[in-house]
Design a protein that fits this description.
The protein is an alpha/beta fold and 234 residues long. Helices cover 32% and strands 19% of the residues. The strands form 2 sheets. It has a 6-stranded parallel β-sheet with strand order 3-2-1-7-8-9, sandwiched between helices. Strand 2, helix 6 and strand 3 form a beta-alpha-beta unit. 38% of the residues are buried. The structure holds nicotinamide-adenine-dinucleotide. Nicotinamide-adenine-dinucleotide (NAD) binds next to helix 1.
C-alpha cells in the first residue's frame, strides 16, 4: 500500500467521532439527535423557527466540548506529523476532535460548531457560547449570527482546494462516512477517474463501498491506528 504513495487525502465522517460519544447522522430511524434533518439542518428550517434551530446547535456545540478525541483521531494526527509527503484531512464533521488530537491541516467542508457566521458582515468568529439569545457579532455588532454549519441545500466550503488536493493525491482514504451526503460521497468516484488508489475504513460498507480498491470493516479506533502503523512502516 505504501509503495509510490506520497500525497494522501483523507475524508472523515461522523463515524470517526462515534467512539468519542458523538452520535452519527443516519442512526436508527434516520433522525439526528431525535430531530428530523428538515427541521434543524436547512436554511428553510432556520427561517421558519430560528429558536428551535439555534437551541439545537447550542446543545450540539456544548456537547462536543465535553467529548475527547479517540484513538482514530490521535492516529491521524500522528500520521500527519510523521508522513513525509503531503497529507490533507478533509472532514465532514463539525466537531473539533481532529484539531484537539493535534492535527494541524484540517479542512471542514461542512463548517464548524465552534464558529459563528454573521450574515450581516460575512465575518466568521470563533464561538463557544450559545447563540439562542442572538448575541451581537464581535465584528459589526449586528444580531445576525448563525451557526457556521453548511446546511442541506447550501454549498460546502473549500471545494476548489479539495479537488486540487485530490488531483495531486496518490491515495484517497475514506473513514467513517456512509457515502450518503454529496458532494463528499462522490470523491471516491472522482479519485478513481483520476487514477488514484482508494481505501475505505468503516464499520459497515458505505453506499459507494464497491468503488474502493479496498474496504476494511471495523471500528475506527482499531482500523485507523492499524492502517497508520502500516503507512509509517510498523
Ligand atoms: P453518517 O452518520 O451518515 O455515517 C456514519 C458512518 O460511520 C456509517 O457508515 C457508519 O457505519 C460509520 N460508523 C459508525 N460508527 C463507526 C465506528 N465506530 N467506526 C467506523 N465507522 C463507524 O455520517 P457522514 O457520512 O459523515 O454524513 C453525515 C453528515 O452529518 C455530515 O455532513 C456531517 O457534517 C454531519 N454530522 C457530523 C457529526 C460530527 O461532527 N461528529 C456528527 C453527526 C453528523
Amino acid at each position: 500500500m505504501t509503495d509510490a504513495i506520497r500525497n494522501i487525502v483523507i475524508l472523515t465522517g461522523a463515524g470517526i467521532s462515534a467512539e468519542s460519544g458523538i452520535d452519527t447522522f443516519r442512526g436508527a430511524g434516520g433522525l439526528w439527535e431525535n430531530h428530523r434533518v428538515e427541521d434543524v439542518a436547512t436554511p428553510e428550517a432556520f427561517a421558519r423557527d430560528p429558536s428551535l434551530v439555534l437551541r439545537f446547535y447550542d446543545q450540539r456545540r456544548a456537547a462536543i466540548q465535553e467529548k475527547l478525541p479517540n484513538a482514530a483521531h490521535v492516529a491521524l494526527a500522528r500520521l500527519e506529523a510523521e508522513w513525509t509527503g503531503s497529507l490533507l484531512i478533509v472532514t465532514q464533521n463539525v466537531d473539533d476532535l481532529h484539531e484537539r488530537a493535534g492535527a494541524g491541516r484540517v479542512l471542514h467542508m461542512h463548517g464548524e460548531h465552534l464558529s459563528a457566521w454573521c450574515t450581516s458582515c460575512d465575518i466568521r468568529s470563533r464561538w463557544r457560547a450559545p447563540l439562542l439569545g442572538r448575541p451581537p457579532c464581535p465584528a459589526c455588532g449586528a444580531r445576525s449570527l448563525r451557526p457556521d454549519i453548511v446546511w442541506f441545500g447550501e454549498m460546502p466550503y473549500r471545494m476548489g482546494e479539495i479537488y486540487a488536493a485530490l488531483r495531486e493525491a496518490d491515495l484517497f482514504v475514506s473513514i467513517g462516512t456512509s457515502g450518503a451526503v454529496y458532494p463528499a460521497a462522490g470523491f471516491v468516484r472522482d479519485a478513481r477517474e483520476l487514477g488514484k488508489r482508494t481505501l475505505e475504513l468503516n464499520l459497515e460498507p458505505s453506499q459507494g463501498s464497491f468503488l474502493f480498491h479496498e474496504s476494511r470493516l471495523g471500528p475506527a479506533s482499531e482500523l485507523v491506528p492499524a492502517w497508520v502503523g502500516e503507512m509509517l512502516g510498523g
